[in-house]
Amino acid sequence: MYQTLIDRYIEREMEFGFAAVSNLEIQAFQSQTWEKNGYPHRITRQDELHRYHDFQRHFRFEEFLQAATPMTEAEFGHLQDATKTIHRFAKSLKSPFVLGSGRKSLLASMHYSQILDARRAFSSPNGEIGILEIGPGCGYLGVLMALRGVPYTSIEVTQALYLYQECLWRSAGLRDTCERHISWWRALDRSTLLPSFNTVMANRVLAEMSQQCLAFYLRRIHAHWTETGTEGGLFIAQGIGFQNIPYAKVFEAFDKIGFERIEHKRGQPDSRHITTWCLKSDREAAMRRLEGVGGTADRPVGADRIRAFLADYDNDNLTSEERFIHYLRTGK
Ligand SMILES: C[S@@+](CC[C@H](N)C(=O)[O-])C[C@H]1O[C@@H](n2cnc3c(N)ncnc32)[C@H](O)[C@@H]1O
After folding, report:
1. What are 90-133's pLDDT values in tens digits?
2. What is the torsion angle, in degrees rounded to the nearest 10, for the CA atoms of residue 104, residue 235, residue 124 and residue 283?
3. C-alpha pair distances (Å), 332 with each of 56, 60, 61, 246, 319
4. What's the whole-number average pLDDT of the chain?
């Protein structure tokens, strides 16, 4: 069912990517971190998709549950709908393991959605709204944004993840989300029109990409906001990511290209780190979007209610990665 999407991606990547652009551009837009550490990032068959289901957040369910709670009733409704969508998709994947509802990555995405909400990404005082996500991972924030009715565009360079996201979103009938799903060769093509957005979210990825790719994104976003006269644009990162490039280089790139850092929260666990930039020329409007941060909304849905809801979908199954780690730690 998903094989056609995989085959089509591989063909297009060859035609419009590898066969069409320079070596330096290919180098800049590869999954640098995973190439270095050997993490598998390409697939050829649909029965490999399951490996990217709720991947890499080993044993962090409670951490993300705490980060995303309490929730509003509306958020809980979206979490329930997204859980059902992801669970249905998981059942359509051929996997030797029992796949759950993607709960760790989904709760992390709900936390991201709350970070966006507090920074007025869904009701900007400055006009049109729209999110551009760089590096969506499992793609669950895309599902939540579709449920909220927020225009959402994404850029993903990793072949296996692009395909996991695309298959999930297509299986859920999210046609707009798929149309605004940008592969690495389309991101590189400066004639690709970016739909309008006033918020960029790039979580745990900025230090994972090459310096060239980071500079490319920053230049495009700067030009886009300047040319479209977007006011109060925010570039938000929940975590800077694994250090393929030093954090200092990331901050330096923003500064050099004309962005100012206006928020930098640190704390433990690292799901509490939030950094936000705006255009240097647009500080005032951007600061207005931070005014609601830390405010208290009516959030009656606590962790226990969410745990009880998710129990129907997960039963505390370990992911395939967690089983391996568990064995390494305990021999069992
Ligand atoms: C550590 S994961 C984080 C995923 C997601 N943002 C989250 O926090 O759950 C990094 C993500 O960024 C993607 N990525 C890495 N380099 C990228 C680049 N140069 N451009 C766009 N995405 C990139 C990876 O494929 C992956 O989806």
Report:
1. 999 988 888 889 999 999 999 999 999 999 999 877 778 999 99
2. 150
3. 20, 20, 21, 37, 15
4. 94
* pLDDT reading at 321 higher than 90: no
Q: Which residue ranges make up each domain of the chain?
A: 3-289
**How big is the CA angle at 284 (ends 252 and 192), to the nearest 5 degrees?**
60
Assigned token pair, 54: 């709720």
CATH architecture of 3-289: 3-Layer(aba) Sandwich (3.40)
Question: Tell me, what's the pLDDT at 46?
Answer: 97
Which of 59, 47, 45 is closest to 96 using CA atoms?
Answer: 47
Q: How far is CA 204 from CA 13, 40, 288, in A?
A: 25, 18, 25
Ligand 1 neighbour 143 (Cβ under 6 A)? no
Question: Above 80 in pLDDT, residue 317?
Answer: no
Which of 58, 161, 182, 205 for a ligand 1 pocket mutation test, highest count of atoms within 8 Å of Cβ? 205
- pTM for the full model? 0.97
Nearest CA to ligand 1 atom 9: 137
With a 6 A CB cut-off, is 54 part of the ligand 1 pocket?
Answer: no
- At residue 153, the pLDDT reads 98
Q: Length of the chain, please? A: 332
pLDDT at 285 exceeding the cut of 90: yes
Average pLDDT over residues 155-170: 98
